[in-house]
Amino acid sequence: MNAKDEAFLKVEDLHAGYGDVRVLHGVGLSVGQGEICAILGPNGAGKTTLLRALCGMVRVRGAVRLDGVPLSGRSPDAVARLGVAHVPEGRGTFMPLTVEENLRVGAYTRRDRAAVRDDLERVYGYFPALRKRLRQQAGSLSGGEQQMLAIGRALMLRPRLLLLDEPSLGLAPMVTRELFGIVASINREERTTVVVVEQNAHLALDVAGQAHVLETGRIALSGSAADIRADEQVAQSYLGYRI
b/e string for 205-215 if b means 16 or more Cβ within 10 A? Predict the structure, then answer.
C-alpha cells in the first residue's frame, strides 16, 4: 500500500446513478488487502450500482482508490488493467464461444503467453468441471458451470480485486455452497481481495470478514461479518431473516 494507514480499497463520499436518477448517496467504506467484504441489503438498495461504480461502468462523484491509486474517472478497461475484475449479475459469459475461448478472453490485457497457459491450469484446478468441457460452447453449460466459467475468466486477469455480483443467483443450494467454498479458497490461497454482493446473507457472512449493509443508496450498517450475523435485530431489519 502506498500509505501505511490506507486501506487497499478506499471509497469516500461516493455518489452514482443513471442519468438524473441518483442511486448512491455518499457511500464510504474501506476494505483491507486480502479481505472478503460482503455487501448486503434489499433489492434496489444500490448494491449492483456500487460494484459498477468501482469498476468504472457508471459516472461517479467522490473518490475510489485501489492501493492508493485513484480509480474514479477511469474507463472500465483502464480499471481492469489496474487489476480489478468484475463478474456481473447474470454471469456475462460469451455464449457462442467455447469454455477455453471464454477463459482466454479474460486474459485480454496480458502479453505473457506462457503465464496465461499456467493460469488456465490454475483455473482448472479450482473448477475441474471446466477442464472436461474445454471445447463446449458456454451456452450449453449448466447455470453453475456458467458461474464457474465467469469467475474463472475473471481470474485469468490475475486480479488484485475481484468484484462478484450475486454469484448464487439461480443456482441450487449445493452448487452455491460449493461456489462460495471455492471463492474462499481463492481468497485464502492467492490473497485476492474480494467484494461480493449477495442476497443469500448467511452464505456471504460465512466467508466474509466484514460486511456493509446498503439501504436506499446509503451505508446503513458496517461491522465484522460475525457481529452482523449474530445481531437478531439487524437480521430482521436489514437482511430479511430471523436468527
Answer: bbbbbbbbbbb
